[in-house]
Structures are given as C-alpha cells and as structure tokens.
Amino acid sequence: MSFRFNFVVNNEEDNNAVVEDTKKYIQGSELIPNNEVKTLQIIGETISIPNSNVKMFKRNVSDIKFEIASNEEDGDNMIATAVLQQTDIIPGVYEGGLKTWECSVDLVKYLSELSNDNFENKSILELGCGSALPGVYCLTRGANVDFQDYNQEILSLVTIPNVLINTVNTPTKNSIAKNGTFETELNFSNIDSSKTRFWYGDWDSLNDLFQSQNRRYDVILTSETIYSIEYHERLYKIIKNSLNDHGVVYIAAKANYFGCSGSLYQFLDLVEKDKKFSIEVVYTYSDFIRREIVKLQLL
Ligand SMILES: C[S@@+](CC[C@H](N)C(=O)[O-])C[C@H]1O[C@@H](n2cnc3c(N)ncnc32)[C@H](O)[C@@H]1O
C-alpha cells in the first residue's frame, strides 16, 4: 500500500510522503539518557511562538537529517530510509517525529496563556512527542515531564537534544547568530532524570507497561497524533488509563488529514461514545485546514 501523508508543515520542512506499509510493531520501553553516554555536536535554531512572547530552541531538522545520513550504514535504519525517501511516515516503523508539526506550536501558544498553577510540580506526559515543544515548554515552567515517541531514535536525535537546549544547555545571547541559529555540544548525562523520563514504542504496549507501573499523570498532551484511525483506540486507551482522576488532556490536531484515515472528529466520536470525558474545544485556528485544541476531563 502507498499513500500521501498530506500534512501542512512548517516553513523549510518538506511535505513529501510516499509510504510503505509494514507489520512491525515497536514494543514499549524506557530510554535512559545516562545509559547512552552520548555527547552530541548540534546546530540549533530559535523558534518564536506566533502571537506570544515565547521563544524556544529546537534542533535544526537539516542537522538531524545530516546525522541520520552519516549513520545510514548502521544496520536496519528505517529512519534513514524515511529521510532519504523524503517520507513523512512509514506506518508501524517511523511515525513522523522528526519534524515540528504546526499543532504543536499552537499547543505551546495555548499553554503559554495558562497560569503557573497548571505546571509547577505537575506530572505531565507528552504522547507522540517528536520534537516535543509543548512538553519542553512545560518543563521550563516547573513541571515534571515524561516524553513518549514511537521511535527510540527520535528521542535521541530530536527530543533529548530539544530538552537540553531549552533547560541546562540554553545558548547564550552571544552564541546565537542573527538568523537565530547556534552550535553547541550536548551531553545526555545532563538530563535531570528526577524531572523527566523518556519512553518509546507503540501506545498499546506502553499502556500495558504504564499500567504495570501504576503510572498516572496530571496532564497529558498530544499533538498531531490522530491522523490514523487504526491508532485511535490505542491512543484513547493509554490516555484514559494514564490520567489522574482530576487530570486534564489537551489534544492538538487538524480537523482533517487528507489522504489519511483519521480525523479529529472520528477520534472525538470515540471519546464521546465512551461517556467518560467532557470535551471542550479551547482553541481554533482556521486556515486552509482548521486546527483545534480539545480539552478532555474525566466526568
Ligand atoms: C506526526 S508526528 C507528530 C509529532 C509531534 N507531536 C508534533 O506535533 O510535532 C506523530 C507522532 O505520533 C507518534 N505515534 C504515532 N503512532 C503511534 C503509535 N501507534 N504508538 C506510539 N506513538 C505513535 C509518533 O511518535 C510521532 O512522533
């Protein structure tokens, strides 16, 4: 099977997407940054969140692609395949975490308008984090944040670098060029494991792992993760089972994903039928494709 994954993506990031189906399924597990013993020379860039004072840093996508291409020889590297084929997603193999999708920027903007009570010492989980700007933003406001991506490689290439350059390794003013880019060396052992943890694998098996550890969060964030109807039930299950009784869920998504099987309304239909959550649309942006943030709370 092949199809076109028709997200609208940020500026420089390409939008091609030829996809092959495979039956692989990545088992849930924790990635411990300290075990990686990794130093990494990276190029970062500054992100200004529109209509807000928030500035964040993220690893430059070309720099990530360069690292992937340099290590292409290393075994069965499906992420390298996705990059070389300029593919947004390979279902069940690579689920698109390399780039920063528009709704994650919407979610940061929305979160930046909330008071500090929503963050300080709260436990937060970002599901399908990729470049993880929403979760990283919460970390900078005093929350404890767990990050989850389907691919372990995305955590190492993108998520952990983004955590570091927004927390312990923020660039100095002098090190940032006029165009907002900077170079820095990161050491994975600088991750504060008392504040943040990293999980990879499929939501179905992570749900089992989280349940076995009785893992619960005050806030669950997720952006651009409902594009495939095949994943709706497992995403809903891990959300429902991992939320504290008084917890809040924020789902940022486009109303429709052309060429893909899932839409926001199909996902909300599933939630509504279960009658466990209240559903409130808290943010709408209408452009070529409508983008929304939906807040769920247990009834
Ligand atoms: C399009 S990316 C969005 C990345 C990021 N949230 C953003 O908005 O920039 C979709 C994300 O959902 C996650 N994902 C998709 N299907 C998944 C599955 N079955 N199990 C676990 N994670 C999945 C992947 O980790 C991927 O990073």
From TrEMBL:
Which parts of the chain are coiled coil? none
Any one Gene Ontology molecular-function term assigned to this protein's record:
protein-L-histidine N-tele-methyltransferase activity
Sorted alphabetically, which Pfam families does this protein's record hold?
Methyltransf_16
The record's GO CC annotations read:
cytoplasm; nucleus
Which Gene Ontology terms describe the biological processes this protein takes part in? methylation
Domain of life where this protein originates: Eukaryota
Q: Where in the cell is it found?
A: Cytoplasm; Nucleus
Return the similarity comment: Belongs to the methyltransferase superfamily. METTL18 family.
Q: What is this protein called?
A: protein-histidine N-methyltransferase
Q: Which organism is it from?
A: Anaeromyces robustus
